[in-house]
Amino acid sequence: RNDGDIFTEVTKDAGILSNVLNFGLGIAVSDFSGDGLADLILVGEWMPVRLFLNSGPTLEEITGQNWMPDSRGWWKSICSGDFDQDGDTDYLLGNLGLNFQIKPTPEEPASIYANDFDNNGSLDAIMSYFIRGKNYPIYPKDDLGSQIPDINRRYPSYGSFADQTISDIFSEKELNNSLLLQANTFSSSYLENLGNNQFELSDLPFSAQLSPVNSMRSDDYNNDGHPDVLLAGNFYGSRIQFGRLDANKGTFAYG
What we know:
mainly beta; 2 domains; five-stranded antiparallel β-sheet; 7 helices; FG-GAP; signal; Integrin_alpha_N; VCBS repeat-containing protein
């Protein structure tokens, strides 16, 4: 909060949870409610699109009140603009994209389980995803065995490990006691403001799905009175089994 000559931290009082900020990668400050007060939208990894309504003294989270589908993703970026030219603020949301081996859905999400699986006093984070209806660990036997040595004892050969699901490798108690984060969409998306704090989420076109969209900027670049959008992205740090996510050479969309 700006108190004139100093800034005062009011994170807790404003109604923004600290764990939201830990995962957040993108923020948009704009008046989506149309009441003249600046509202807040946060996006990030393993998070839904989170909406906070400015009521004056506090920010009230209304994420579950806007009839949007469950939107947990690996969100990277956000930008705002009146993209449908109806007088209110809409949003574009950058995600991992659909050009990727893992393709989560609400029924078959990508997951990460965090627990001290080998009882050595530190957390082990195990990611998983679905293949033909079964939930498998992302990591191959060598990687998982180096993190949790008991895996090598239980599975002495690659063949014995090959078809093991998450629930085969770990007990129900271990999984239930784990910190569980999930993502059910990797699609970069358009968040349309329908008014009255209601929103509709839809996929952006194919050209916006080729790689992660890490940054976006909206402006009227061709001076025709309509908002245009620049998208930038790619990611070179993925595991060898997935390859570099480098199919985006930059995208310019005319409004």
